[in-house]
Amino acid sequence: MFSWVLLVSAALFQGSQAFTGLRMxxxxxxxxAVPEGWTAEKKVQETEGISLVFAVKQRNLQQLEDLFWKVSxxxxxxxxxxxxxxxxxxxxxxxxxxxxxITTWLxxxxxxxxxxxxxTKAKEFLSCVMPCYMANSLLDVTFSVxxxxxxxxxxxxxxxxxxxxxxxxxHIDFVGNVHRFPPVAKRTQRVKKSNGLVELQTPSxxxxxxxxxxxxxxxxxxxxxxxxxxxxxxYGKTDLSEFFKLFGSSFVHRADVDKVIGPNKFPSGxxxxxxxxxxxxxxxxxTTWFWSTGGAHEKQEPFLQWMLDIxxxxxxxxxxxxxxxxxxxSLSVDYMDRTNQEFMKQGVRGMSLLFASGxxxxxxxxxxxxxFFPASSPYVTTVGGTEGLLDIGTERATLLSSGGFSNVYxxxxxxxxxxxxxxxxxxxxxxxxxxxxxxAFPDVAAMAMDFMxxxxxxxxxxxxxxxxxxxxxxxxxxxxxxxxASGKKQLGFLNPFLYSHASALLxxxxxxxxxxxxxxxxxxVGWDAVTGLGTPNYENLLKAAMAQ
Length: 548
Ligand SMILES: *[C@@H]1O[C@H](CO)[C@@H](O)[C@H](O)[C@H]1NC(C)=O
Ligand SMILES: *[C@@H]1O[C@H](CO)[C@@H](O)[C@H](O)[C@H]1NC(C)=O
Ligand SMILES: *[C@@H]1O[C@H](CO)[C@@H](O)[C@H](O)[C@H]1NC(C)=O
Ligand SMILES: *[C@@H]1O[C@H](CO)[C@@H](O)[C@H](O)[C@H]1NC(C)=O
Known about the structure:
Helix content is 30%, strand content 22%. By secondary structure, the protein is an alpha/beta fold.
């Protein structure tokens, strides 16, 4: 009989080759390819610090999922009966044997766990800093320094699959900061010149279009909306003031973000400016948080750091807008499953999570449609994009709006009727393979083209489903404010509510997305894979929400 403690300590001295039979790969399917633009520079020095995040297996996952559906499904007696942070932690906190096994494994390798690691409150994540030789040996990898040519950003990653001793495997979902590269910190994105034919979007045009009228938040003292930002994207206070000077005179709004979590440095970036400027214009006068990860964590996986921070936070916003995604087929199912558990936990706590659907249309390669994750997660609300043309004066699907079907997650019940209607009635479906029984996205949409933002004090139009997401999220914050102020609970996970109140949205029926030969998905009557159920109508959604 071998024990893992002996194996790992021996591995430190002998090299791990002799023990390959007793270690196992986790995260099968995780891409270890170096993304375009990054090149390996050198091996990380033996003594240099490496930070690893251990996602510890959680308990009661079936109960978590049951609770998630109960609190999110209108008409049931548990609808919107959210759990507190402590209640969730008690439910999911890992088995003591998992905590002990991991602690012993790391201690035996020479790590001072008490001083070099932090647990989250429920102990479902362990974040450690250790010398590189120790990380290499624990995972049987070689960490290297990578540099991004264009941005000069650096990170440390391993390019062959890590393995774990068999006796540890059952206690860990995955180890973070090993394979997945951070997103590249582009300062300004999707900026373009207006061609004069399009209708430029401003806060007042969107408030009018989405029937917001003069509605503002601020009646509830606990209502919070937030935008999540990753590496290198910071918002500018002076950009925000200039934006409101130009576009904010017709409605009451806050002058600045109320709370910044994580770093916010100079210079600002287009994505962060867009998100803050538009969530604060639709969710006008709502308490607004800027939830950033990056900077100090630049070598970490920023999305993982965000998940960990949210799981560990006592107070979370009731709605969060996130413009982030990867190709589903580049991620391991272990990682996506755990990410979904984190989404469910936040849903059970009452948070609405909105993700941009992506800007690559149907995203077809060699006649296969490639979906994005978390857009393809059944446990979040995915927002696609529309556009308005001056000569039409109406809204139609936009080319870049991503949508499609997950190849990993099956279709949740809330959307099966809507999706099968689309597949059986749509006049056009892409000539490529996709999974009809998978989770279909997006769920909803909003305008995504020609948003006037102020970036580095220059007003300029930008495009993308990351315009649509904070727009929709701000409207949810207005509804939550009204609900909370009248003694009701906020909306929480939105999809069962939205699919059962489709008539509260404006159905978008014209035009197709691109991204697959000539045509991707086409908008149609009812749900479709470009604009979902349609775009928001604040008054209608408010009425439906208040009636519950
Ligand atoms: C979780 O939060 C507590 C304090 O609120 C902190 O001490 C701890 O370090 C955090 N854990 C992690 C992994 O960040
Ligand atoms: C643990 O938390 C402390 C205090 O927040 C921080 O200074 C330290 O860097 C953290 N260590 C790790 C390994 O995350
Ligand atoms: C804006 O919100 C604050 C609460 O943060 C509230 O006191 C104020 O009355 C609101 N403004 C208006 C015009 O309702
Ligand atoms: C299609 O999706 C289902 C889950 O809905 C999955 O079990 C199946 O493997 C997928 N098929 C392909 C070809 O990806």
